[in-house]
């Protein structure tokens, strides 16, 4: 699905229920493969963008949205647009979230015409008239998704993100996985040795939370007193002796633990700490990618426990 935010004052009735228009709009979008999350205020929507920076492909804004400004004129449509543009610059000049303007107020649209700029070449209109241009809006959002590296990544690794959702991984950890996939899989960061520390942190999540809940670590938990240092190294060794764990997962845990631990510490001359050095120098151009795939195999396997 294409994840889209929508801010509009036609979302909520005075009694707090969703309006008929909101329900119809969201359901029609869903039928087109677009998952719209509605918000009544600009601030709520922007907080959601900051919370999940790798999720949202587009945002739909209304020009005249009295409820959305929460009584503060500085929180108007134009201010929201500027905040989103600043957010995109701060995230490596990305194009997401694309901004679509969807409004039913011809007077306001006429007065604010100077504020309307097509956000991308795929947009057929500066302003999509509400409700007549609904189908045109959906069509252009789907075209925008085709240009989105975020959407391409989610589509390619949809099973991974579904697995993390099922295991109730935190949004923060899911965002880290997304960032690793996006950068390592595209070979943008094959020399970035700082990513080993991110992988190590995710490995701790994988080796602790889910496995203990599944019961597969029960024997280890009972024997914790025998392991003075309850570390991911010890847990990895335990997993390697567990006959319930497939060989490829045993090897993934062992290899990933050793390399991520080694790579988290940089030393120019130590023969035992060469992972970060060789990665930084480009001598191991596929090492981060192999670590990433080990991690993804572990995530898929754990989700099925």
Description:
- This protein has 305 residues and is of the alpha/beta class.
- Helix 7 (158-166) packs across helix 14.
- The protein has helices at 20-31, 42-51, 77-90, 106-111, 134-146, 149-156, 158-166, 171-185, 195-214, 218-222, 232-241, 247-263, 275-281, 287-303; strands at 2-7, 34-39, 58-61, 98-103, 128-129.
- Helices cover 53% and strands 8% of the residues.
- Residues 66-74 have low confidence and may be disordered.
- It contains 14 helices and five strands.
SS-based structural class?
A: alpha/beta
Strand content: 5-15%
Query: Distance N terminus to C terminus?
Result: 26 Å
Strands of the biggest beta sheet: in what spatial order?
Answer: 2-1-3-4-5
**Main β-sheet: number of strands, strand sense, barrel status?**
5 strands, parallel
Short description:
The chain is of the alpha/beta class.
Helix/strand layout:
Blueprint: E1 2-7, H1 20-31, E2 34-39, H2 42-51, E3 58-61, H3 77-90, E4 98-103, H4 106-111, E5 128-129, H5 134-146, H6 149-156, H7 158-166, H8 171-185, H9 195-214, H10 218-222, H11 232-241, H12 247-263, H13 275-281, H14 287-303
Parallel strand pairs: 1-2, 1-3, 3-4, 4-5
Annotation keywords:
single chain; 14 helices; 53% helix; 305 residues; alpha/beta; 8% strand
